[in-house]
Design goal:
By secondary structure, this protein is α/β, with parallel strands linked by helices. About 50% of the residues lie in helices and about 20% in strands. The strands form two sheets. The chain has a six-stranded parallel beta sheet, sandwiched between helices. It has a six-stranded mixed beta sheet with strand order 7-6-8-9-10-12, sandwiched between helices. Pfam families: Peripla_BP_4 (PF13407).
Length: about 325
């Protein structure tokens, strides 16, 4: 009996050790090269990514690139050296990635793009891209403004980071609407680098250049943070944002809903901060049974106006 009990104990211990080893092997480590924390939306994406990783038992190592591509490339190379199971990248600009992505591919480390796409002739360098349709975001923002103004409006545009895919595509979508409405014109356009401070600074120069703002019908901002900066500049110029100058932007962060509830903004197009959830699911399926995900996993975009602003603000404020 004692011998049988000893064998059983040994067997149980071996089972526990093998289970622990299997768990250790299954627990993924992912390196995430994040653009930075330039906006409320970006901070929310980072927060949600941590939550989604924790839910799935994934160790997510985040590197803040402070909006510099060279920092992202350095981080990716560091992740490769560490032997992580996968790499997520939110690319600050769309070009210049082939070399470092080839290094990841040679190391057999799959790469997933989050929120932004890249320009490459070799799509095998990344597993999938989880993004919204950023051309569509710009298009629906423009369509709302065209309908609201009867297709007659002098627009100033606050572009995102020069060379980033959202800035390129959100402009492209909006420009499609402008081309279809001869009475709509973009009278000024400049990068605000997706930041509130820069958005305010550029808007101040637009106001001075356009008759103290009297020649401006609307601001089209590639993200809400720049729109918030523009709202501050408009108020300081003695004008009423949302009325004297309409505010159209993209992201759907809490502060823009607060501005809408206060009558200081008119419309925002949602960009969900949960890019990591779909990315993790696709990656885990690929790791488990080799299931190849689609090259583009599209997230949903929605248009919001002041009617639901307070409810949306209450729903989102804890996330940002």
């Amino acid at each position: 009996m004692k011998a049988r009990h000893l064998l059983t104990t040994i067997g149980m211990a071996a089972l526990m050790l093998s289970s622990g080893a299997a768990y250790a092997q299954s627990k993924m480590t992912i390196g995430f090269s994040q653009v930075g924390s330039e906006s409320g939306w970006r901070a929310a994406e980072t927060k949600v990514s941590k939550i989604e990783a924790e839910k799935r038992g994934v160790d997510l190592k985040i590197s803040d690139a402070q909006q510099k591509q060279e920092n992202q490339i350095r981080a990716v190379r560091s992740f490769i050296a560490q032997g992580v199971d996968a790499i997520f990248i939110a690319p600050v600009v769309s070009t210049g990635w082939d070399s470092v992505l080839k290094e990841a591919k040679d190391a057999k480390i799959p790469v997933v793009l989050l929120d932004r796409s890249i320009e490459t002739k070799d799509e095998s360098l990344y597993l999938t891209a989880v993004t919204s349709d950023t051309v569509y975001e710009g298009k629906v923002a423009g369509e709302w403004l065209a309908k609201e103004t009867g297709g007659k409006c002098n627009v100033v545009e606050l572009q995102g980071t020069v060379g980033s895919s959202p800035a390129i595509n959100r402009k492209k979508g909006f420009d499609q609407v402008v081309a279809a409405n001869p009475g709509m014109k973009i009278v000024r356009t400049q990068s605000g680098d997706f930041t509130r401070t820069k958005g305010k600074e550029v808007m101040e120069s637009f106001i001075k250049a356009e008759g103290g703002g009297k020649n401006i019908c609307a601001v089209y901002a590639h993200n809400d943070d720049m729109a918030i900066g523009a709202i501050q500049a408009i108020k300081e110029a003695g004008l009423k944002p949302g009325k004297d100058i309409k505010i159209v932007s993209i992201d759907a962060v809490p502060d823009i809903f607060k501005a809408m509830a206060d009558g200081e903004a008119n419309v925002t197009v949602e960009l969900t901060p949960n890019m990591a959830g779909p990315a993790l699911d696709a990656l885990m399926a690929f790791k488990k049974d080799g299931k190849q995900p689609p090259k583009w996993i599209q997230t949903e975009s929605k248009v919001y106006t002041p009617e639901t602003a307070k409810a949306e603000y209450d729903k989102r404020k804890e996330l940002y």
